[in-house]
Design brief:
415 residues, alpha+beta, six-stranded antiparallel β-sheet, 18 strands
Length: 415
């Protein structure tokens, strides 16, 4: 009987596992890093596995949040936990402030457990995370929880914004934060969270997810993946991943050069834009940030595999200096940024040559006049040709006589 029950239980487990669809329907833009956790105290501690992901449905065209964010986790956080509500990184970056709440924290435990999100050693299984959040199962579950129609969600007009969450004890109180909330909260408590929980709050949590390529107005992360990040970097670039549902064009790439200009001069600064494809339906926008002003160059088009110049006219400062021009490019496939380094020089301190009429060159000397041999004799020949006639007798009765049948040119002689 025990063997029979064991066999039935194993069969049911196998059936349940295989009944969950894992077909990939999305494209994950996620990467990760992290490092060692160090040591903590009983009042400031995080247990590995106490993590989750905040999911927000975002409209691709204008990055607008279209549904209330949801939190997915394998755990059951305590009911009295402190949190900041369901606010996404996009909303915080648009000016939303922190509003602490105790209790009432809502979350969902998916039937198919999530892979580990926040690593303790910097080796999160990003491939497993991508596969999970791009699977048909979890996307259908997200559509169900958020109230979105599944076919609409995966139709190409929307994206999923993912943010890692950690549940941890800070100063003896349980708290739930995304990476962005942790950075903002650290600023509120004058750096105390970083001081107590730096390995979690400023390293493993924000580096659990970051973008491989720019998306939703956020850049790809090119900084350290093993060191604690600053609050500014966390808020601007870390603690997020994106799931897309259509093939995205390549992000634009901007190529620049450094320039040297004269002071108080109207100049033209240009950059070369390439990557992906830019057409009238999906133009590229280039923004030049110069001396506190932003100059936008829009409606830039170029075919796939080609490039295009974008330029701006501006006036250099009145004084010598080194200045930077920040360039931002937004195209169909994402965003790219770069910096042009300009050196502004005053030529009055190094004037160019200015020749005048009475300038002297005491080293000047005349060149010798070429001497040509004089010709004293010339010869030529003139030919004087003449014709030599050839007479032939023609007998024709009364008109008989000699007639000139033809003439022959005879060589002449020289004069």
């Amino acid at each position: 009987m025990k063997k029979l029950l064991t066999t039935i239980c194993i069969s049911l487990i196998i059936i349940c596992c295989y009944s969950i669809s894992v077909f990939a329907v999305g494209d994950g833009n996620i990467d990760g890093g992290g490092g060692g956790m160090g040591s903590g105290t009983s009042n400031n501690v995080w247990s590995p596995g106490m993590d989750g992901v905040r999911v927000t449905v975002v409209r691709a065209s204008d990055h607008a949040v279209v549904t209330a964010p949801i939190d997915l986790t394998n755990k059951k956080p305590p009911s009295e936990i402190y949190h900041f509500g369901k606010i996404s990184k996009l909303q915080y970056n648009n000016g939303r402030g922190l509003s602490p709440i105790q209790g009432g924290y809502s979350f969902k435990n998916p039937a198919q457990a999530m892979p580990r999100i926040v690593s303790t050693n910097g080796r999160s299984n990003i491939d497993a995370i991508k596969k999970y959040f791009c699977s048909e199962y979890i996307i259908k579950r997200i559509a169900e929880i958020t109230g979105m129609n599944y076919d609409v969600l995966i139709g190409g007009e929307y994206k999923l914004l993912l943010e890692p969450i950690a549940y941890y004890k800070f100063e003896g109180v349980m708290i739930a934060t995304t990476a962005t909330e942790a950075a903002m909260y650290d600023e509120k408590v004058s750096g105390l969270l970083r001081k107590r929980m730096v390995s979690l709050s400023h390293k493993n949590l924000p580096l659990a997810m970051f973008l491989e390529v720019s998306d939703l107005g956020y850049p790809a992360w090119n900084g350290s993946t093993t060191k604690a990040a600053t609050n500014a970097d966390i808020k601007s670039s870390l603690g997020l991943g994106v799931v897309r549902f259509t093939e995205q064009p390549e992000p634009p790439v901007v190529s620049t050069y450094d320039y040297e200009y004269r002071v108080n001069t109207e100049v033209i600064t240009s950059v070369m834009i390439s990557g992906g494809q830019s057409d009238p339906d999906n133009p590229t926008l280039v923004s030049f940030h110069i001396k506190g002003k932003t100059y936008n160059v829009g409606n830039i088009y170029y075919p796939e595999g080609d490039s295009q110049l974008a330029w701006v006219k501006w006036t250099t400062p009145d004084t010598e200096q080194n200045m930077n021009i920040d360039v931002t490019v937004k195209g169909p496939g994402g965003t790219d940024k770069t910096t042009i380094h300009c050196k502004i020089v005053d030529l009055d301190k190094n004037p160019p040559p200015n020749p005048v009429a009475d300038d002297r060159n005491d080293d000047f000397s005349l060149s010798l006049i070429p001497q040509k041999a004089e010709k004293t004799r010339a010869e030529w020949t003139v030919w004087d040709p003449w014709w030599h006639e050839y007479w032939v007798w023609h007998s024709t009765g009364e008109n008989s006589g000699y007639w000139c049948d033809h003439a022959r040119l005879v060589s002449g002689q020289s004069a």
